[in-house]
Predict the 3D structure of the following.
Amino acid sequence: MTVPPKDPSTNNDHVTADRRVITGLGASGGIVIGRAFVLNRQYVQVSRKPIDDNAVQDEIKRLHDAVAESIDQLKRLKSQSANVGGAASEELGFLMDAYIHMLTESRLVRGAEDLIKSRQLNAVHAVSEVIDVIANQFSGIDDRYIAARASDIRDVGLRLMRCLIGETDRVADMAPTGSILIAEDVSPADMARFNPGQLTAFVTALGGAEGHTAIMARSLGIPAVLGAAEIIRGVSGGDQIIVDGGRGEVILSPTEDDIAHYTQRRADWLAARDKLASLRDVPSATRDGVDIDLHANIELPIELSAALENGASGIGLLRSEFMFMNKDYLPDEDEQYEELADIVKRMDGKPVTIRTLDIGGEKLAVALQADMGSGPNPALGLRGIRLSLRKPELLEAQFGAILRASLHGNVRVLIPMVVSVHEMTRTRQIYEAVAKRLRKQGHAIPDQLPPLGAMIEIPAAAIAVDTLARECDFFAIGTNDLTQYTLAIDRTDDQVAGLFDALHPSVLRLIRDVIKLSNERDIPISVCGEMAGDPRYVPLFIGFGLRNLSMSPVNLLLVKQRLRRLDTRNSKHQADRVMEQWDSARIAMMLDDFNDLA
Ligand code: PEP
Ligand code: MG
């Protein structure tokens, strides 16, 4: 590696002397007082494999694609920094412009292109050589301003190299146990790689509160603030900081009063959590005695203990992506079987709904990158069942593993991103063919295959849910994507995070109508998007006739507490009134009122 690494924990470029409060999106609640670990991602493994004559043009194209991706990232950071306000916003804006400039028709890009052509270096090697040359020239000049430009060119070059090689580094592994991670961005794949217990909280400059990074933080109970643009220039490794994940605030250089105040708030937060724990074994039923199933969503196997500790009566959504996102190879049927069988056994006969692979969009798997390419609009691209049907060998291995694991308990199989009944028909054919193959190979699988159901998370599926009913044994409404696709709001984009509105009447009508049709036809129906874990929405769902909610384990007891105070007839009346409204702000207020009355 040619770029000398800085020690991420001692980045003292920007010393914070005075108390400051930085705000972002409160993505995962909780209060933590601790030391910052700044993830600079200064470590890039530069492979030096020369390329063939006939690969030169392809390598140059790769370089230009990576330049475009880097510029795109910088523009996102710049736009996010506009929310910061004041001088800090201007400073960040100028810096991002300078970085973009360094990548536009620059010596850096031209130099790398020349090296690819003249010495047939691979792109990442060429970039690292050019950075060395430019940065060394700058740092030889005895001027603090110019020396700082050397560090800027290294930053830009590192970003470019990371785009070239894909983000597979494990820098966060070096965070001291108990630290608070500060990073430009944390991807769901990064989350899957974190060691449990290592990080107490994290703060990022980018990211929306509805994306998978936020969902995983909530499930793991790690307080998080996302989309806090100022953080990238505001904090140094080792600084003591306070993170308030519920309010979306980060306090830099806290005073003694702050420490005392937040220590008390943290104690209150922990006490409230302990108090809820007493609800673990009480029945999950409304005041008028209607049983409600509360299931857990699981992103990573380590969350299973939390699900059980919080009294989940099943797993309503096992996101099988975890088996793919933290590996650089594709796990085969046997490996997937081992992981799934373990979870099914530990659930001891309680229902486990395993969703087939929903890679794509923001959730990436290194081993599948080549197959998927990067379409112009990943959220609308090769995702979920579309990818699985394009690569049936993926689906066959998954079905094989799930069917074998189903012998150990009570399994249901859930298909993501379904739009049309043909997808389900084809999926069922593959499912039955795999069952036949397994029997022939002598594997034991149940006589009656586990139910096969569809996620209702795309408006087309919700509107024509009756057509899907022909091929589906059950439905699970995914409110995260249903909101994203109904409102055309990217759930991961901090720029439009304020517009992501699950209470929009169009979203609520879709949810209500899907629940109604399912109940009329006796098709089991659940809601497993993030809305299900928000206690404020419980009366609405109960009023719509829903009896099964699946959520992050941390929310199970809060939701139970709320539903035990409700009466189903009253909730039905309240839901009817909500559906007469046309303004989501008014709907939110009404729901708050209903909850206060409950
Ligand atoms: C959803 O879209 O609501 C859902 C549960 O699926 P995911 O969040 O994994 O996309
Ligand atoms: Mg979804």
User: Anything to note?
Assistant: The chain is about 45% helix and 15% strand. The two ends are 62 Å apart (CA to CA). Residues 56-81 form the longest helix (26 residues).
